[in-house]
Design brief:
Mean pLDDT: 91
Number of strands: 7
CATH superfamily: Vaccinia Virus protein VP39
CATH architecture: 3-Layer(aba) Sandwich
Number of helices: 4
Order of helices and strands: EHEHEHEHEEE
Largest sheet: 7 strands, mixed
Shape: globular
Strand content: 25-35%
CATH topology: Rossmann fold
Strand order of the largest sheet: 3-2-1-4-5-7-6
Radius of gyration: 14 Å
Helix content: 25-40%
Low-confidence stretches: none
Number of domains: 1
Length: 141
Amino acid sequence: MLDLYAGSGALGIEAISRGAVEATFVEQEARTLGVLRANLAELGIDSIASVVAGDVPVAVRRLGRAEERFDLVLIDPPYASEEPARAFEALIASAILAPGAMVVLERDRRHPSPHAEGLSAHDERRYGDTDVSRFIAGQTD
């Protein structure tokens, strides 16, 4: 699984606790990277987790060049930003999504969900000002 805009790693760590065999975390903020690495080590899961430091689209392209493939991608970008669209574009361009992969996006409900050829909206749930949307790779709307 791939956790984009990982922050402290909470989403990816939860995925590991629910059976993800391995996880890749992408985070740009230097101080947050230290917290993320410490959390993975403290939980004893750093052997099945890798951390990629840097801008999400750049990191996703790097993972694509390394021929990495993911069947679950969690995206929790900064609210009120263009990051969801940038992340979706990078995911499609890099070809890192396995057939049928699920992409889960958390975003501010006031910002439209991005559209990407090759990802089909599966469902959307609203929690106050937050929307959580699931997309399936290999399909189009």
